[in-house]
Amino acid sequence: MAASLFIYVAAWGLGGIALARILANDGRALAGWIACGLYSIDPLLANVRGMETSVYLVLILAAIWTFQRQRWITMGCLLALLAIARSDAILLAAAFLVWLVLRRRFAAAALAATPLGAGYVVWTYALWKLTGTAFPSSLAAKMAQRDSGQWGGQFSYLKGLNPYAISGSEAPHPLTALIVAPLLIAAIFGTVTAIRRHEFALPALAVAAAIVLVEYGFVLRLPMYYWHYAAFNMWVVAGAAYGIVEAAAQQQRLRIAAALLTAVIAVGFIAGVDLAPKAGRAPYRQVAEWIDRDTKAPHPTVAASEFGTIGYYSRADLVDYLGLLDSHAIPSVRHGDFTWWLTQHPAYWVTDGTWIDAAATKSADFTDHYRPAATFGPLTIYKRQ
After folding, report:
1. What are the beta bridge partners of residue 302?
2. Second label for 160, Cα 20 to 30 Å away, from 121, 324, 346, 365?
3. Which domain of life is it from (predicted)?
4. Half-sphere exposure of 51 (CA within 13 A, CB side)
């Protein structure tokens, strides 16, 4: 836990510095440091609280920096890490190579593609040897969740391009919701200006956001997981900083307004950060420790829809019925059936009583074999008899 927290915070901080540097490389130092400041208080990154998203973003930014510096081998290594950090990011990695090919920089494309391809092949082979599958990913589970209709419609991701994509919260603070429109207007203005000036950094961030939007919103049509808006969010932050500085530079009378808008955006960002523990998450460690005390089995089987903390703090073997860990559950998830775990006869079942678990509690298999054993906050532990 401590290591992942350190990586999360370190990658977030390095991402802000990298964002400032890539804009400075295009001659936009002031916009870069404003973007860095806003990025450091970005509510979506604060509310994600996980290292994958901040690592994913800093790798995108680092790849853009190496592109600007024409360090093609280093860029290829970073793109390999990017594709490893999030498997669907291979499209972003490919976009860098396509850009070089379109500019007829074939030698540069080859230099970058070599470590990218080699790194990704080695990683894929290692995964196959260690896990038995070359592409272990939660993507299939998320698509099954989409098909079930229980996580919104086929295009629910696109509906999240609102305060949700900025704040990372389904119920954003009113101040955060208020700044979304000026943020988007400033970001679009800044991006158009950067494109007209043939700059690279901000248009590259816009292309990354567009690729992810098309990938998640139209092709995969994934549910609204707020960390999937990270690339879009980063483009908005950088574009807004650029747009505000550019507007102030073009019109002197706008300087005070630009400074005030920057301050309002900062206040809105800070207001959107939710520092309180996520509801219902705190007792999971207590659940894990209770199960370890209750059983003599070296690795008791535990079914749960939220299993991260339980898996970390206990010696349990987890039965995942949402398909993220066990692909055998995916066909059931696709049909909106979340009772698959009963076929595995786990020793314990942990539930918070949400709609996902309603059908299981009505099953004869459940009522015949499971009894409540302990309660921690909203969580109930059922034990197989």
Report:
1. 318, 348
2. 324
3. Bacteria
4. 12
- Report the C-alpha dihedral over residues 13, 14, 17, 18, rounded to 10 degrees: -140
Instruction: Dig out the tokens for 170 from the structure.
Output: 């389904």
Rounded CA gap, 340 and 329, in Å? 6
Cβ pair 22, 14 in contact under 8 A: no
Q: Bridge partners of 348?
A: 302, 383
Predicted TM-score (pTM) of this structure: 0.87
DSSP state of 371: E
Helices and strands, number each (H, E), in the chain: 20, 5
Tokens standing for residue 203: 């248009």
Give residue for tokens 């207590």.
Answer: 286
The answer to whether the Cα torsion of 176, 178, 181, 183 is positive or negative is negative
| Torsion of Cα atoms, 43 then 46 then 50 then 56, to 10° | 60
Tokens coding 174: 């009113």
- Helical spans, DSSP H, in 132-254: 139-148, 156-159, 163-167, 174-178, 180-196, 201-214, 230-250
Count how many Cα atoms sit within 13 Å of the Cα of residue 87 in the half-sphere of its side chain: 11
If you average pLDDT over every residue of the chain, what do you get?
A: 89
Closest CA to 378 of 355, 358, 352, 360: 352
Backbone angles phi, psi at 49, to 5 degrees: 55, 45
Each residue's pLDDT tens digit, 156-205:
788 778 788 888 887 788 888 889 999 999 999 999 999 999 999 999 99
The residues near 286 (Cβ < 8 Å, ≥ 6 apart) are 376
AA identity, residue 365: D
What are the sequence ranges of the domains in the chain? 1-272, 281-384
Taking alpha carbons only, the member of 105, 93, 231 closest to residue 157 is 231
